[in-house]
Structures are given as C-alpha cells and as structure tokens.
Inverse folding.
C-alpha cells in the first residue's frame, strides 16, 4: 500500500482538481426573478463561489508538484490540500443546503443593475440548485481525505529519483554498483565537479 501511496495521492488531487475546475464553468443555481415576467438566470459555479476556479487550479498544481516532492514538501502540500479542501467544502455545503442569496447576488446585479444583498433578496422569487454543487462537495470531501492521506503516509513514500535518496541527506550511491554507469551518471559526476572520464569502465 505504501509503495502506491504517492500515486494514489497524486491521482486523487489531479482528479478532484479537474472536477472542481470543470464545475466552476457549469450552472450551479437557477434564479427566478420576481419581476413580473419571472425571468430565470443561470448562476455558474465561478459566480456562486469566486475562489472555486483559482483553488481548483491550485489543486491541480499541487497534484503535479506532489509527484516529485521531497519529504518536507509532501507535508507542506498535504497541509495546503487539507486547507483548500476544507475551505471549498464549507463554501460548497452552504450552497448545497441553503442556496444563499449572496451566491447569486453578482449574477442578479449584472443582469438587473440592482445592487445590495437586501435589494437583490427582494427581487429573487426562488433559487434552485443543480447537481453540480453536490458533485463538487463530494469532490472536496475526497480531496480532504487525500490531503490527510498524504500527511499520514508521506514519510513512507518511495523516492522519485533514479537513485535511492535519504529523506534529509544527499543522494547516495548504494544502487550505483548494481548497474552499468550510464550517461545520466556521467552528467551527475560533472555536476559534482568530478571527471567521468577517469572512472574505470564497467
């Protein structure tokens, strides 16, 4: 299980981030206006929660970075993931269970020119939610679990390099004797200031 822990965490973050970003472009709420004609406005996720798309993109970036992160950054990225997931879960749950006027205010103001939450509330006859807020809430809960999973298992992840690495020290050469010295090894020798041409042939 621990051998696949990095892969599980990365896939979970990327998948949840993708769902969140896509959700930001979809209709979350339908607002019926009390304007005599009963006009209906569609409110996308990005309007209901302005930070939805930016935080979704941040999760995608964290997923990519986590695939190559060392021990300290695993904990940092795991903590950031938990923070983002908790924030989005809180904001999304409010829309799923309450459909607050604040979530539609910007869309109503853009369509009618009426500003102020109280004035907007008087104009709104009904607010209904689509499935997307619930889908996003599930994604944020999975994301929260992935962040906690990252924090719990980070120390046991296998290294991402070609050689075995200590968690807080330089690259070791324990594995170098078990395979031929190749071009990448020669490049590593040069970066350390060594002359690879002086190394005996394998």
């Amino acid at each position: 299980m621990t051998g696949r822990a990095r892969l599980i965490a990365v896939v979970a973050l990327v998948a949840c981030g993708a769902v969140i970003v896509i959700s930001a472009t979809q209709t979350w709420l339908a607002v019926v206006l009390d304007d005599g004609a009963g006009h209906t406005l569609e409110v996308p996720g990005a309007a209901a929660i302005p930070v939805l798309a930016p935080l979704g993109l941040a999760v995608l970036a964290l997923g990519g970075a986590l695939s190559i992160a060392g021990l300290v950054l695993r904990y940092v990225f795991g903590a950031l993931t938990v923070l983002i997931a908790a924030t989005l879960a809180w904001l999304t749950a409010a829309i799923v269970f309450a459909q607050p006027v604040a979530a539609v205010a910007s869309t109503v103001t853009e369509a009618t020119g009426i500003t102020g939450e109280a004035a907007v509330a008087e104009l709104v006859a009904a607010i209904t939610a689509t499935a997307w807020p619930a889908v996003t809430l599930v994604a944020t809960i999975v994301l929260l679990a992935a962040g906690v999973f990252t924090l719990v298992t980070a120390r046991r992840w296998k290294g991402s390099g070609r050689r075995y690495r200590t968690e807080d020290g330089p690259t070791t050469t324990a594995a170098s004797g078990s395979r031929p010295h190749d071009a990448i090894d020669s490049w590593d020798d040069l970066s350390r200031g060594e002359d690879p041409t002086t190394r005996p042939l394998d």
